[in-house]
Amino acid sequence: MKTGMRLFTLAALGFALLTWENGHAQEKAVNWKLVSKNLVRSLASENEGLRQSAMDFFVQHADQLDINAAVYDVMHVYRNHKDERVRKLALVTLYKMQNKWAMEFLKVDLRFQDSAELKHMVAAIVQEYEAKKKES
Fold first, then answer.
1. What's the CA gap between 76 and 33, in Å, rounded?
2. Phi and psi for 114 in degrees, rounded to 5?
3. CB-based contact 65:35 (threshold 8 Å)
4. How many of the other CB atoms lie within 10 Å of CB of 55?
C-alpha cells in the first residue's frame, strides 16, 4: 500500500512539473509586441465586448504590454460609458497604463467627478501616481 501511494505521489509530482515547464515555455513564446498591437486595434473597435475583453486582458498582463497608443480610446470609455462598472474597468486600465497624459487628466477629472465611488478610485490612483513620481 505504501509503495503504491509513493508511486502515485511521484507520478503526480512528475506530471505537475512537466505541465509547469510546458506552460512556462508557452508563455515565453508569446509575441507581446503583436499582442499589444492587436489590443490597440481592439480598443478602437466599436464592438463593446471586444473593448471590454481587451481592457481586462491588459489589466491582467500590463507588465508585458504597451497600449499607450490607445489611451484616448480608453479615456473615451471612462468618460462616456453609461455603465459605471465599465468605467471602473477603463479607470483601472488607465492606471495600469501609467500614461502621463491620462494621469494629468485624472487629476483634473477628480474635481468634477460626480460618482463618489469613482471619485474615491481616482483620488487613490492620482495619489499613488504622485508618490511614484516623487520616488523616481
1. 24
2. -85, -35
3. yes
4. 27
Each residue's pLDDT expressed in tens, for the chain with a length of 136 residues: 555 444 444 444 455 555 555 555 555 689 999 999 999 999 999 999 999 999 999 999 999 999 999 999 999 999 999 999 999 999 999 999 999 999 999 999 999 999 999 999 999 999 999 998 888 7
Instruction: Locate 52 and state its grid cell.
Output: 471590454
CA distances from 38 to 51, 54, 60, 78, 126 (A): 11, 9, 16, 20, 28
Count Cβ atoms within 10 A of the Cβ of residue 6 and give its class: 0-12 exposed, 13-18 middle, 19 or more buried.
Answer: exposed
